Every structure is written in structure tokens, then in C-alpha cells.
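=== RUN LOG ===
request id: a7f3
mode: sequence -> structure
chains: 1
length: 311
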Amino acid sequence: MKSEVSETERGGEGGQGEIGCGTFDLNALPQDCIATVLSFTSPRDACRLSLVSTTFKSAAESDPVWESFLPSKYQALIPSSLSFSSKKELYLSLCESPVLIDGGRKSLSLERGSGKKCYMLSARDLFIVWSDTPTYWRWVSIPDSRFEEVAELISVCWFEIRGKIKISMLSHMTNYKAYLVYKATTGVYGFDFHPVEVSVGLVGTEGSKRTAYLDAGRGLRLRYQGPPRRIGLFNRSRLFGLQSSVPTRSSDDQYPKARVDGWLEIELGELFNEGPLDGELEVSVLEVKAGHWKGGLVIQGIEMRPRISDT
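=== RESULT ===
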């Protein structure tokens, strides 16, 4: 890879002279110099630049580059039973396989393209109203959860889940989105007609609020439900003086989506983390107004991860 630099200089008496700096080969730079430059880019850019030449590939594969993309104090996060041949292999492992931290109450992973941190708070790390009462909730272990226990909802009227995380744990200058990660059992009920209220914000502030439906079947029904049938020129409901029973279609974000790991997730909101701040981020999921019984959910946790468009 070569670069050419030239400069035009105006001489005395109106004369002009051209100074040519010629060309230089970037591949001639020391590999550690190239590696230092690459460490100030991103994992995605380092992979792209590795295609420039064999020299750049060697620098881009080096441990100093990939160590710069790892979280600070990452050594304490890696179980002693695991070993990796390179820092790049360790980085990719953290992207694919979250590690448990904080005594198994949270998990940490990295967003592959940027190296920004993703966290999931386990159900045990959340505040769940009535979770200590077996009549309403029970704690079980299932093989496809990353945590030792998940919370299974038996039946409640007051549905309230809250989670908190220190702002300082999140990556700086990053727009985070929060998601409730859960499953619906075959006997799920009570979530099809009444939405839950979700919010994300700093502790001590009101935060942004929205409504969402935890019943995945409702979203599918609305998405594929056709318009009301008509009789002649009149809508059947108008003919009998009734309001249409077809709900208004809303954003897909109001309904759960399937994850690649087999769980469901519902978006709860987002927050931009400008930089190192004191305080905590609080996320909540509530349904306390309808007054009806509901049950049949399995809660794995609440996940905070960067928006892909910002990485």
C-alpha cells in the first residue's frame, strides 16, 4: 500500500516551484506501529484493514490490537478453567458465549462489531413483587437459560418487575436498548387484552414510558388479521351501531419478537449513555391497573445491549 504526497510552493519574484515528497510504502512501517494505529479503530475496521496486505493482516491479528477491544480488567471475568490461544479468540468467545459475573446474577458479552458491552440481569437480580411467595411465583432451573434459576409466574394480579444497573458499567457514548427476555408456557393467560407499562430511566427520574403486549400471539393476530367484512356498502359493525372490534395496528416494537436462542424479547425503551456518570439505570415492567389474574410466563432476565445502528 503506497501513498503519494506533493506540495506546491510559491517562490520569490512570483516564481512557482513544486516540491514532491514522492511515495512511501505503508507496509514498510513497523508492525507494532501499524498495530498501534489499528488499536484506535474498532473490531470491525481492524478486520476490514486486515485485507489490505499480509503486513496489515499480521498486525490486525496481533494480541495488542484485540486486547485494546476487550473490557478493562477482563482477566477477572474469565473462568480459570478456560484458555485461549489469542486475544482475538478470547474476544470472539465473549461475543458468542456470555460469561457470568457478580456471583452468577448477571452476564456480560460483547457486541461483535464494536466491542461494546452487553449485560443481562438475571431474574434473581431483579425486584419481582411476590417472587418469594410460591403461590404466585416459583423458582426453577431449565437447560436453555444462561442462569442457574429463572422465575416462573404462577398467577398474580399485581405484576411488577424492576431492574437496576450502574451507569458506570455501560459503554460510554452508546445508545442502549433494554429488553425483557422471557418465555410463555402453554398455559399463559391474562396478557392478551391488557398491555403492560414499561419504562427506562435514571433512578430518581420519571423515565420514558410506553405500553407493550407480552402475548406473542396477539401481535401475530393483528399482523395477519384482515379488514372487517362488509355487507354491501356498509361495514357490518356500523350496520348494527357497534364499534369495530379490530384493534388499531401499532409499531412492531409493542409486541415480542423471537430471539435466536429460542426465547422471546420485548423492547422496554432506550437510553443514551454519554459518559462516566454516577447513579443507576432503572428498567420496569408493570401491569397493576386491570385487576385481573394472569400467569404462565418464565422470566430469564432483563438485557441491556447497544443499538446495532450505533455500533
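=== NOTES ===
The chain is about 15% helix and 35% strand.
The longest helix spans residues 87-96.
=== END ===
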